[in-house]
Amino acid sequence: MRFIIVTGLSGAGKSEATNSLEDMGYFCVDNLPPTLITKFADVCKQSDGKIDKVALVIDIRGGIFFDDLFDSLKELSKEQFKYEILFLDTSDEVLVKRFKEKRRSHPLSPGGRVITGIELEREKLKEVKEKADIIIDTSKYAIKDLREEMLKNFGDVEAPQKQLSITVLSFGFKYGIPVDSDLVFDVRFIPNPFYIPELKPYSGNDEPVKDYVLQQEETKVFLEKTIDMLQFLIPNYNKEGKRQLIVSIGCTGGRHRSVAIANSIYEKLHESNYNVYVEHRDIKEDVHKGDKKL
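Now predict its structure.
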């Protein structure tokens, strides 16, 4: 199990760091009282491997409970439970600016100057920072920069391409374009099996329709160019911190051409070890409603 204690200065980016960890499959708990760390670790241990990545956000919001952090960490060490401490830091100037932009008071100086709260918090966190395994200074980071740093430190280094979840989604234009689409491809230029009586009852999941669609010269060129483009885009989306990609393939009714092509794209991406899924939104629509036009 990878067990991360996320802490650091208020306004340094702990929320965004936690979001990144959640996207990487970590079970995250925010503002857990330190006295419960050992009990929580035991619960995770008893999950039979179902919970293998955990991140606990613990900071000065815990008030008087925060002082129990080091006793709890000693208890973890005594139980031979491995953990890592991630500390998020930022310069005073940047922190003041962030608090002013968000019009928030500092938790340690709710009625006074922000800088006073920052100084008090730095002193309170001095010891935990010294014990940190990883320190990330977010002073000059945009959100995508922090996500990239988190991925580098806590992602699956053996399979970085799996950090992006890809869904290849077939649909019918007459039922509307999926609202969550990132990329939309219109395959209505391919000859339509609907107008071939012996193919009409089938869908793109069935061999007769699949063979008919994939043997078209237009389909072969389209797939070659589309896969080539996706192979280029996916690593760049990963680099920018994107975590979900919806690739929508549309024909008129969403039963024949789009289904066969979506399946083919899924297979090719799966062969490249991407974290890919396929879904057919409109395949169950009544086949007798049919495609009214090409």
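The beta strands are 2-8, 27-30, 53-57, 84-89, 134-137, 165-172, 183-186, 244-251, 275-280.
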